[in-house]
Amino acid sequence: MTPSVSQNPSLSQFPSSSPSLSQNPSLSQFPSSTPSVSQNPSLSEAPTLPCLSSTTTSNVNPLTISGGEIYFCFNSLVPATSDVTVQTFVRGDVDAAIESYDVIDQDGNSLGQNNGGDTECGTAYDQTDFVVAQATFNTWVATGTVSFIMDVTPQVSATIFACSGQSDGFINLVYSSR
């Protein structure tokens, strides 16, 4: 026997399995997975990560989520006697004009972008250098930690098959010290 329409219970008697638009929380209550220009990532929001001690070359850190961030941390560095060159190296899905890694210092300032190269998923690293003033760098060193973020545009894929998981990067700090 098939129930008639009049025998069907009212939908209002059942809890909704998905909230209606009026029940949806505001998107502003949730952090964005891809920061916009006005939501520059902050190192204070960075996950706890092991800092590299007394070295000026970071580990190669993979991009684990398309359009995500890669964090770099150094500690026990000595003060600089001149300006510091921050060498950034990236590879992977970073060949188009809209694909880049924005390099952000620990004060939340963009040093600039590493736009990669012309080869989709190349195995060689593309290098872009930025200069940090000696006084700024030494202020960071005095805090005990020097940190950077590579904020990756959403178009850079962490999982593109052709790259075989090789969307990654590293940072090298070049400077003179006493």
From TrEMBL:
Protein name: Uncharacterized protein
Compositional bias (Low complexity): 1-33
Biased composition (Polar residues): 34-45
Region named Disordered: 1-51
